[in-house]
């Protein structure tokens, strides 16, 4: 909306035959405009802060691998139970049934869940972009084959195939990420294909072809940079999907295997204790909610920032 | 404000009898980059039966001005001053009052008839809607009235057309429907916002004839917004020139077009290419170099046939048996209306779409048999400039990268020599070196087109294919780009296939002209012969329909065109009451 007004109202080319040399007002590159719009999206900024806090706290508190964090308790030791194990100053998130520190467990679960989510996000984005770009650019038989492949992946019930693949990974976290990443790229592939289909007809691609630019260079240098908006937004939303998918899988027992924990497996493990020790359910649940909501809000902010047509500037 | 109001002759010039008047109108838009003053306090009257042309280049605020009369500006606009339509002050009306005003007192004719009509409703539905909303006629009566309106604007078989959808009509007929909708409630004033810009030149002449007879027969006032000085000369009684939100000059059409007072109006008029005056209009430098004959043709098309495949229907033959050539150093103008296949030929000459049959040979090599490395070598010798400068530059590339990209693709030189080459080209297209690091969206349309031309010349091609390179530009920008183009052609001596619908531009540049219609060549020959002494009826009609920016001459041309149409057994467009 604001764009058309600028077209109608902004300083147009040319006072008589004297074209103005360069706009005098401060000009912004495309990326700067996107950044400006993003920073104005209040929800996205709050979400960024929450997300950053979750990442920083989860990784610094109990540390990574052998590097210790500032939290003095670990996930393996069963401590003396204080009262019924509810939240105390000693154990702010409470203790589990055998006295383990639940704050440490939740932080560990958050780490694993985030690792899986971002891993799946990156892998599925790579696959989806590649397949979508190739299908959209070459069209014809290549397009048909790749899109039918996509259809096949889409029609298989996600949770069912993820469960089978999750079982086959035998507790290896990286294999689990690969398996999930190989399943959730479909929507991005379709989006990128649509975007490429329209971009390949644009004059600047025509100009590049007329010069003799190779298809690979056209895709990588000319087309993909122009789809970065779609890709970024979709990648963010895939991360949210991956978090929930992992939670679902772990809840069903097909995801992260003991002794490691994820947010989903924590909930699954203590689902029976919900009535007697509700904190065992609430803490990991709240973390999932916080992460998924933040990621969705960030995705929303990015989409608004990249696509001015969707912003509603009500003033 | 520097308004030179030289229309002091008329005695009846009180705002009292004006059907549309703007008094001290200012419009400011609030955007995310601060406030933009679109209109800065203008005064303008339109009286019954009068055509007032509001002229200006893009961004001058002419459309914003006219939109205030309908109260249709978006929410972030701040309006001050008074706009009166038939005695009502637009700013004081509530929503219901505004709805009554629109259609009843003031109606609008838009630029693009395809988007102004709703594609999923029939013509009849769209016409009767306005009649019923304004309580003029209902049901069967409204349908009869709608058919009557279509007959008035000269659409044959109006009853059948009522049941058709917009896509079943031609562009000219769609614009007639839009005009029929505009006059359906008998408004006192019609705002026509670039009503013919999207139309072919022969259709444009018909629509202008129709609009003219509206003012004569219905005494409707028209506020005509346009950038085309030829249209102004053809239509307007009075002219108001806008520049950056200010009215710089108003007066009768003869005063403004023939004796402009303001510096801007003078420059604007000087920039309009005149059909019939040939090359050298913008000074002696701007004269295309003479071609070098005798060598191998830069582009040689023989019996070219191009077809577009359609699913479930026979292929569409866009180009049918076309034969012509372009000599080295020669500019050949390819002229035709939309759908004539001229752009298809340009794309085929670039190897972007394949030929069905016939031969396309570029610099002596056949495009259809050249493959791989040799094809890439051949492409190196062809340059291309497209119509829309906004679409033909990659928005994510800084200008330096845009221009050096062909060098990178063909692995010519190293980073330093490429940079030098880009700087040389920027200088040649008269752009400052500072644009090297800028992005396309930071440049104006004319500057972008210069970049586009610089990119086309990077590899010093022997053949340049230019597809309507100036039709998206403002007239003053077009003049400077054309001037630069001719001096570049003189310097680099490339052959050029110049596709355009604008005969005046072709007249300025081309050595030879090829006229196309419906995929076939109608006439070809040296510029002087084709444009001065056309043999074919179609060329004659095309030439007669192109308006020139001089009211007296344009009136003669209009009468000559009507005579030509009569001699061809056709009638000119007018309102049938």
Automatic annotation (TrEMBL), chain A:
The keyword Transmembrane helix applies. The keyword Oxidoreductase does not apply. InterPro entries: BP-dependent_transpt_permease (IPR050366), MetI-like (IPR000515), MetI-like_sf (IPR035906). It is a multi-pass membrane protein. PROSITE patterns: ABC_TM1 (PS50928). Residues 110-299 form the ABC transmembrane type-1 domain. The chain crosses the membrane at residues 45-71, 112-138, 145-166, 172-192, 223-245, 280-299. It is found in: Cell membrane. Keywords: Cell membrane, Membrane, Transmembrane, Transmembrane helix, Transport. Pfam families: BPD_transp_1. CDD domains: TM_PBP2. Gene3D superfamilies: MetI-like (1.10.3720.10). Belongs to the binding-protein-dependent transport system permease family. This is ABC transporter permease.
Automatic annotation (TrEMBL), chain B:
Keywords: ATP-binding, Cell membrane, Membrane, Nucleotide-binding, Transport. The keyword DNA-binding does not apply. It comes from the Bacteria. Residues 20-269, 299-543 form the ABC transporter domain. It is found in: Cell membrane. PROSITE patterns: ABC_TRANSPORTER_1, ABC_TRANSPORTER_2. It is a peripheral membrane protein. GO terms for molecular function: ATP binding. NCBIfam families: PRK10419.1, PRK11308.1. Belongs to the ABC transporter superfamily. This is ABC transporter ATP-binding protein. It comes from Myceligenerans pegani.
């Amino acid at each position: 909306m604001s764009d058309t007004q600028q077209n109608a109202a902004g300083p147009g080319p040319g006072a008589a035959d004297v074209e103005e040399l360069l706009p005098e007002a401060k000009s912004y590159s495309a990326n700067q405009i996107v950044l400006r719009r993003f920073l104005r999206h209040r929800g996205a900024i709050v979400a960024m802060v929450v997300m950053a806090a979750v990442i920083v706290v989860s990784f610094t508190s109990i540390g990574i691998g052998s590097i210790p964090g500032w939290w003095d308790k670990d996930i393996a030791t069963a401590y003396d139970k204080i009262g019924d194990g509810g939240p105390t100053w000693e154990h702010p998130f409470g203790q589990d049934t055998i006295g383990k520190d639940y704050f440490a467990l939740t932080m560990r679960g958050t780490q694993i869940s985030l690792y899986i989510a971002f891993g799946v996000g990156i892998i599925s984005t790579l696959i989806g972009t590649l397949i979508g770009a190739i299908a959209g650019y070459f069209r014809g038989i290549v397009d048909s084959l790749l899109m039918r492949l996509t259809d096949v992946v889409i029609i298989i019930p996600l949770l069912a195939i993820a469960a089978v693949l999750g079982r086959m990974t035998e507790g290896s976290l990286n294999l689990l990420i690969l398996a999930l990443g190989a399943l959730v790229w479909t929507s991005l592939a379709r989006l990128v294909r649509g975007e490429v289909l329209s971009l390949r007809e644009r004059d600047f691609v025509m100009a590049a072809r007329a010069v003799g630019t190779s298809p690979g260079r056209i895709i990588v240098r000319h087309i993909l940079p122009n789809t970065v908006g779609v890709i970024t937004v979709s990648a963010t939303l895939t991360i949210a999907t991956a978090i929930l998918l992992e939670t679902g899988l772990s809840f069903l027992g097909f995801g992260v295997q003991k002794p490691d924990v994820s947010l989903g497996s924590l909930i699954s493990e203590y689902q029976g204790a919900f009535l007697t020790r509700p904190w065992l359910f609430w803490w990991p649940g709240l973390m999932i909610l916080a992460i998924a909501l933040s990621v969705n809000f960030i995705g929303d902010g990015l989409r608004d920032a990249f696509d001015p047509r969707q912003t509603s500037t009500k003033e | 404000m520097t308004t030179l109001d030289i229309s002091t002759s008329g005695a009846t010039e009180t705002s009292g009898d004006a059907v549309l008047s703007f008094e001290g109108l200012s419009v400011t838009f609030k955007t995310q980059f601060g406030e933009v003053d679109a209109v800065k306090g203008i005064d303008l009257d339109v009286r019954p039966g009068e055509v007032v042309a509001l002229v200006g280049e893009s961004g001058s605020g002419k459309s914003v001005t006219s939109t205030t009369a309908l109260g249709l500006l978006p929410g972030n606009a701040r309006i001050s001053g008074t706009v009166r339509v038939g005695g009502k002050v637009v700013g004081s009306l509530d929503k219901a009052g505004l709805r009554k005003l629109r259609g009843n007192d003031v109606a609008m004719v838009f630029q693009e008839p395809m988007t102004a009509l709703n594609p999923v409703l029939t013509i009849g539905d769209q016409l009767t809607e306005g009649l019923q909303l304004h309580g003029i006629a209902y049901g069967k009566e409204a349908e009869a009235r709608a058919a009557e309106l279509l007959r008035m604007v000269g659409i044959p078989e109006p009853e059948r057309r009522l049941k058709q959808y917009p896509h079943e009509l031609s562009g000219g007929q769609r614009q007639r429907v839009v005009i029929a909708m505009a006059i359906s409630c008998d408004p006192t004033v019609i705002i026509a916002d670039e009503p013919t810009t999207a139309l072919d030149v022969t259709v444009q002449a018909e629509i202008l004839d129709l609009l003219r007879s509206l003012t004569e027969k219905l005494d409707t006032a028209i506020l005509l917004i346009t950038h085309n000085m030829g249209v102004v000369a053809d239509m307007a009684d009075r002219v108001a020139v806008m520049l950056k939100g200010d009215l710089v000059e108003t007066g009768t059409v003869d005063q403004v077009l023939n004796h402009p007072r303001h510096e801007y109006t003078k420059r604007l008029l000087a920039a309009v290419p005149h059909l019939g005056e040939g090359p050298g209009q913008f000074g002696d430098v701007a004269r295309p170099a003479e071609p070098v004959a005798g060598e191998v043709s830069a582009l040689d098309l023989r019996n070219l046939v191009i077809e577009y495949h359609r699913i479930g229907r026979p292929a569409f033959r866009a180009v049918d048996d076309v034969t012509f050539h372009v000599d080295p150093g020669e500019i050949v103008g390819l002229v035709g209306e939309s759908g004539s296949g001229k752009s298809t030929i340009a794309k085929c000459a670039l190897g972007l779409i394949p030929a069905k049959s016939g031969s396309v040979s570029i610099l002596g090599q056949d495009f259809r048999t050249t493959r791989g490395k040799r094809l890439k070598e051949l492409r190196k010798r062809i340059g291309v400039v497209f119509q829309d400068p906004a679409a033909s530059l990659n928005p994510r590339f800084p200008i330096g990268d845009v221009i050096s990209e062909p060098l990178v693709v063909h692995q010519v030189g190293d980073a330093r020599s490429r940079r030098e080459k880009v700087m040389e080209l920027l200088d040649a297209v008269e752009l400052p070196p500072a644009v090297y690091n800028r992005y396309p969206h930071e440049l104006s349309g004319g500057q972008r087109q210069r970049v586009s031309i610089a990119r086309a010349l990077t590899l010093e091609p022997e053949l340049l294919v230019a597809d309507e390179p100036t039709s998206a530009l403002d007239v003053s920008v077009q003049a400077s780009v054309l001037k630069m183009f001719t001096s570049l052609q003189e310097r680099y001596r490339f052959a050029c296939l110049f596709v355009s619908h604008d005969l005046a531009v072709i007249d300025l540049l081309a050595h030879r002209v090829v006229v196309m219609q419906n995929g076939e060549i109608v006439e070809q020959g040296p510029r002087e012969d084709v444009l001065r002494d056309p043999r074919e009826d179609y060329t004659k009609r095309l030439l007669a329909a192109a308006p020139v920016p001089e009211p007296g001459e344009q009136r003669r041309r209009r009468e000559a065109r009507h005579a030509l149409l009569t001699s061809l057994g056709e009638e000119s467009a007018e309102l049938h009451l």
